[in-house]
Amino acid sequence: MGIRYDLKRSRRKVARKAATQYERLDERGRFWALRGVTLRVESGESLAVIGPNGAGKSTLLKVLAGIIAPDEGTAEVRGSIATLLKLEAGFDDELNAEENILLVGEYLGIPAPEMRRRIPEILEFADIGEFSNAPARTYSAGMRARLGFSVATSIEPDVLLLDEVLSTGDEAFKEKSRKRMVDLMKKARAIVYVTHDLDAAEEFCTRAIQIENGRVIADGTASDVIGAYRKRSLK
After folding, report:
1. Contact 207, 46 (CB under 8 A)
2. Between the chain's N and C termini, which has fewer beta carbons within 10 Å?
3. In a domain, 2, yes or no
4. The pLDDT value given to residue 20
5. What local confidence, expressed as pLDDT, does residue 40 receive?
6. Same domain assignment for residues 230 and 132
7. Do 169 and 177 meet the contact criterion of CB atoms below 8 Å apart?
């Protein structure tokens, strides 16, 4: 599976930067964010995706989420999907917390009565206080992230896609988030977790892959792949 971008259609400065930093251009000058990726995640697996910035980790997650389609090969996900890629995705700045919860629930295909039933627990976990009655444009970045995390983790998916979500909020909320993630991971049938937090990846995941320059260069148990990556990073 592969994802490519035509740099000729990009701004010249961006194209020069990509060409300089990465050896991922083909003979036609196209930049491959991902190429030659073959990956299968079985039910019951928790997969960590690690690697340096710009390696293609988040692009892989967007492919699995159906946000972008492969230019080469295919991607298939079976079952219901929950994605924590951008925590406040789907929020309307003019709506309050309850209205935004119902809006996101509609995006996720959850019936309104079911989403209404979950509102009290979602708001309690988000802990945004009286701002729950205020429009989202008045929220701080932290408040938006807490509400987004609370909404996204209130469902029980077959496939859970995560991107650095445990770096959100203050220390107290991070700890509460970690506990919520553990519970959610137990309920999901398959998990793909993109992260730079190697400790969290080793704690939560059973398997790991390492991506560099758009290709998978290591695949194995979380402890083995993460251990080798740590040694390589130290060198």
Report:
1. yes
2. C
3. no
4. 47
5. 94
6. no
7. yes
